[in-house]
Backbone:
């Protein structure tokens, strides 16, 4: 059985959750404020110039699932990366390394904390969006799937970054130079058809494109790509990232001397 | 726990840091209920040995067992049997000391109610009750040392590993720790102690091992090792520092 120490996982998850709740002004509220700003500027102001009536949706409705995906990615990545990196920095990561938690359970405990933060954030983003654009969720079960799978992928990415990084500069590098550009270019704010045809190839090899469109399909029922591709890509990424993270914990990469 | 009379068994342990060989074929046993002193000059390999036992350090080869369980293959079992009082103050800076102990107990599978009871008892035993809602940074050096002991003992381990537990402590605290360790040992806990205070090892330990440059140079019961000499003289001879 992969999980034996349920009390241990519960304790670790609780510590992770209490950690971000204790600084909610930095962890929960900023995504809501930035969502309102994005909706006001892109959705309400510039969005009037973009016509998506052929798809039967408004531009504002189009960007809301993208914003949910973006905030889910950011919050889960930041939570896992900062928590694990700080515990490496202060060396209190030894508290879990000395415990009888398996490496799988250690990763799971940290992941649950990030997952919880991400779910709270996207619930807040959705609630805020409802003020501007009331709507019903087109495919609730698919939305639950993406609300879970996206933070699993990026919590693991955050843990990988936290293991690799030697300082805070290295820690933020992945987010600044890889995750955020890929997220923006993955179609958070634009349908793929608005990009010149010769550049669409780069969008289609960007995994974020499938995550954003998966979430979009689940919320508004419209997407640029097939939901099956989105599920396949997200599931594959989650399995790869989770397995890699557990493997690095098991070999003690930058955790054991 | 397996019914083994050997609490710690190390056979042919080899550990390199890059090209530097920190441990060279280290082999020794520590019996159940022993108070074992593991001595050596700085950088001799005591902390590396502790890190191998506790799983904080990888090693190149060797057969390391805790009560018959392999520290690599059966790490969940071995870690549950060990409590480590580390040298450095590596506590979670965001938690109160009581919360930190309760979470630590939780990682060992101890339910919240029992964890809170144990945390309160230990804080009381080490005179830290008044600071239970304080974060560790607000504690004095001596209090932090006591907190390290609380954390090591929160899951009631069979083996207590102490890496220089009294370094930097005043005499009063040192005596208090000595008394408590003696009591724990009498109750049946196996204690593995590293220290640079020879009088501490001489007073507390039943068996002694001396390591120098990654190799065991002396091991046996206290009388055998000392042979009418002081431990300081034996240590200095064994480490070629005399």
Residues:
């Amino acid at each position: 059985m992969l999980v034996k120490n349920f009390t241990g996982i519960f304790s670790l998850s609780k510590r992770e959750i209490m950690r971000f709740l204790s600084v909610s002004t930095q962890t929960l509220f900023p995504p809501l404020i930035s969502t309102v700003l994005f909706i006001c500027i892109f959705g309400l102001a510039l969005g009037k110039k973009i016509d998506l009536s052929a798809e039967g949706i408004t531009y504002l409705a189009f960007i809301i699932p993208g914003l949910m995906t973006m905030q889910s990615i950011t919050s889960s990545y930041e939570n896992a990366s900062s928590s694990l990196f700080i515990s490496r920095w202060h060396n209190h990561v030894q508290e879990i390394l000395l415990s009888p938690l398996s490496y799988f359970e250690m990763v799971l405990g940290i992941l649950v904390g990030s997952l919880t933060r991400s779910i709270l954030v996207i619930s807040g983003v959705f609630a805020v969006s409802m003020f501007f654009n009331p709507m019903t969720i087109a495919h609730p079960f698919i939305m639950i799937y993406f609300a879970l799978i996206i933070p699993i992928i990026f919590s693991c990415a955050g843990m990988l970054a936290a293991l690799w990084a030697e300082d805070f500069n290295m820690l933020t590098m992945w987010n600044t130079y890889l995750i955020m550009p890929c997220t923006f270019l993955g179609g958070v704010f634009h349908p793929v058809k608005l990009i010149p045809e010769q550049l669409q190839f780069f969008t289609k090899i960007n995994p974020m494109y499938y995550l954003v469109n998966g979430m979009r399909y689940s919320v508004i029922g419209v997407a640029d790509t097939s939901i099956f591709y989105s599920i396949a890509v997200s599931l594959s990424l989650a399995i790869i990232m989770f397995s890699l993270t557990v493997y690095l914990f098991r070999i003690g990469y930058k955790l054991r001397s | 726990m397996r019914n083994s009379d050997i609490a710690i068994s190390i056979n042919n342990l080899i550990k390199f840091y890059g090209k530097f060989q920190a441990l060279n074929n280290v082999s020794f046993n520590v019996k159940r209920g022993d108070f074992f002193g593991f001595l050596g000059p700085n950088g001799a390999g005591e902390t590396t040995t502790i890190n191998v036992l506790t799983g904080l350090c990888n090693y190149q080869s060797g057969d390391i067992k805790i009560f018959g369980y392999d520290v690599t293959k059966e790490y969940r079992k071995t870690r549950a049997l060990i409590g480590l009082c580390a040298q450095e103050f590596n506590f979670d800076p965001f938690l109160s000391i009581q919360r930190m102990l309760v979470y630590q107990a939780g990682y060992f599978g101890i339910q919240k109610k029992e964890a809170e009871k144990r945390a309160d008892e230990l804080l009381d035993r080490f005179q830290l009750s008044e600071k239970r809602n304080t974060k560790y940074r607000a504690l004095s050096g001596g209090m932090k040392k006591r907190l390290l002991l609380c954390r090591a003992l929160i899951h009631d381990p069979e083996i207590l590993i102490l890496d220089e537990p009294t370094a930097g402590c005043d005499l009063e605290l040192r005596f208090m720790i000595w008394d408590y360790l003696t009591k724990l040992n009498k109750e049946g806990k196996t204690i593995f102690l590293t220290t640079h205070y020879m009088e501490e090892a001489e007073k507390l330990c039943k068996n002694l091992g001396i390591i120098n440059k990654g190799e065991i140079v002396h091991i046996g019961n206290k009388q055998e090792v000392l042979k009418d000499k002081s431990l300081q003289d034996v240590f200095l001879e064994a480490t070629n520092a005399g």
